[in-house]
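Fill in residues.
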């Protein structure tokens, strides 16, 4: 995925943490660099039962520096704790924007799966099902609105670089991460237990039971058993298996945990403006100058 390892602090540093206030670029193949790969890729004999993760997976790497020499021109920060936060913040902003942009698609997919499986189950007109999908689509809309607001209100520097708006990026990423479990819970409630118990694709092709499995996995003449089964497999793979677990953690931790986004959101929110609005609403204009 890359030839270089960008190695930077992940938080602000203080006096006494000089040894950790280091930023540099290290070639992946430098002597002493060791990477232990982990993956959520399906360990299953039939990849058809994993329609999402069998085609898209991101290995994670636990990186070890075992006496690695880094040339001086590759060092950007060397024992300067007062500058460590600059590096950490710069990564956090872009990581959160990337996470927010990924959530737009993920949230819309969850809404789509909820609607599709409700139709396949013949329950799309049921009141509580419609209510859950309505809540899901409202959240998906708010996530997209946050991304568009972050881009529309970007800050362009003197050298022409565009930076997304800090408040909308962090508030949107926080909202998406904090509500992901609710979105998945609604999808599981709508889909039902067959998300886990649906037969495998090979079972549907089995000469002894395949025709029965296809028959009873169907719900109406218009809903084919194979189609409904594949929907269940996709939902399980996306939200209730190894890939689903990876999603649950990375949605929160990408760009820092929820608390980090709350800190930055509060930092960039115009609290003085909000207080002035409140005073105007209370007809206490004489106090506005004190805010």
């Amino acid at each position: 995925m890359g030839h270089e390892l960008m190695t930077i602090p992940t938080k602000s540093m203080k006096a006494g943490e000089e040894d950790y206030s280091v930023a540099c670029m290290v070639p992946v193949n430098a002597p002493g660099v060791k990477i232990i790969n982990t993956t959520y890729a399906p360990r299953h004999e039939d990849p058809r039962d994993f329609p999402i993760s069998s085609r898209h997976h991101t290995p994670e790497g636990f990186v070890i520096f075992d006496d690695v020499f880094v040339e001086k021109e590759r060092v950007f920060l060397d024992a300067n704790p007062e500058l460590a936060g600059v590096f950490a913040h710069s990564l956090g902003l872009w990581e959160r924007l990337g996470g927010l942009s990924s959530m737009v698609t993920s949230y819309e997919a969850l809404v789509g799966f909820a609607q599709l499986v409700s139709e396949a189950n013949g329950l799309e007109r049921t009141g509580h099902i419609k209510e859950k999908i309505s809540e899901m689509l409202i959240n998906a809309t708010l996530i997209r609105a946050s991304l568009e607001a972050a881009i529309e209100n970007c800050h362009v520097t003197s050298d022409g670089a565009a930076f997304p708006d800090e408040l909308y990026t962090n508030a949107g990423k926080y909202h998406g991460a904090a509500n992901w479990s609710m979105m998945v819970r609604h999808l599981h409630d709508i889909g039902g237990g067959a998300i886990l118990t649906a037969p495998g694709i090979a079972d549907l092709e089995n000469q002894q039971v395949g025709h029965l499995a296809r028959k009873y996995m169907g719900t109406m003449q218009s809903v084919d058993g194979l189609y409904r089964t594949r929907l269940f497999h996709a939902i399980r793979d996306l939200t209730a298996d190894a890939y689903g677990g990876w999603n649950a953690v990375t949605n929160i931790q990408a760009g820092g945990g929820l608390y980090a986004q709350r800190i930055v959101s509060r930092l960039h929110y115009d609290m003085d403006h909000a207080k002035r609005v409140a005073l105007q609403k209370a007809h206490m204009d004489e106090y506005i100058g004190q805010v």
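The first strand starts at residue 4 and ends at 7.
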